[in-house]
Amino acid sequence: MLKRIKKWLGLEMPRPVVPNELWDRIESGLPFLAFLTVSDRLRLRELALDFLADKEFHGAQGLELTDEILLGIALQASLPVLNIGLEAYHGWVGIIVYPGDFVIPRHEVDEAGVVHSYDDEVLGEAWAGGPVLVSWFGGHHPIGVNVVIHEFAHKLDMANGEADGFPALPARMSRRDWAAAFTPAYEKLCAQVDADEMTALDPYASENPGEFFAVASEAFFETPGQLRDAFPAVYDQLKSYYGLDPAAGEAGLRAEPDPHRGAT
């Protein structure tokens, strides 16, 4: 069904209709979408269809791209730009989906000029000006680890250059305020990792400021209350940048009465 979207749009035919049962089944595997308002969830569905019409998907290692995979990735990739717009993803079209983690050959030159080659096992990677590579594990992943959101946060970061943790900010935001929030948070996390302490974010965020932004973005959408408690200034900056407040939605869900409580 979804593979015909571009053809239909090119012929100016009506947008394909995705059954609610299919949306509901896919979204049930993405519980953090419940932090959105009803109107935002409906807007996200529409944006996901626009995303699918704009990008080209390829299954690697024989992976068959089902409607569930395509919609699942599109929903997650569209979430960060729900209030930014798909134009933030301009300049590239390819998304390569692997059936699990995969290996990328690396080559590094040390200070003596010696080239070291090795295989890097990864879950995803975003290439500047090129495609996004993501692994797919049937839509399931540990809470707070979201490969799709992570890699598409890198794409937002790369829109104004390298992935350095400073994406292009809207006019309402200040680069100085961004740095004042992110720099001490990154340094704090690095110190916690060095001291082998428990961290509110995946320790991988200590790799560099670009990874900190991507990991913090994962947490912003998946475990927003935890991020807000640990790094409130970072949460506030991401709230302004993404134009969403998922922690409020999460708190609202937790405050809802349990319909089964007291039942006999």
From TrEMBL:
Pfam families: Peptidase_M90. It comes from the Bacteria. PANTHER family: MTFA PEPTIDASE, PROTEIN MTFA. It comes from Parazoarcus communis. GO terms for cellular component: cytosol. GO terms for molecular function: aminopeptidase activity; metallopeptidase activity. This is Zinc-dependent peptidase.
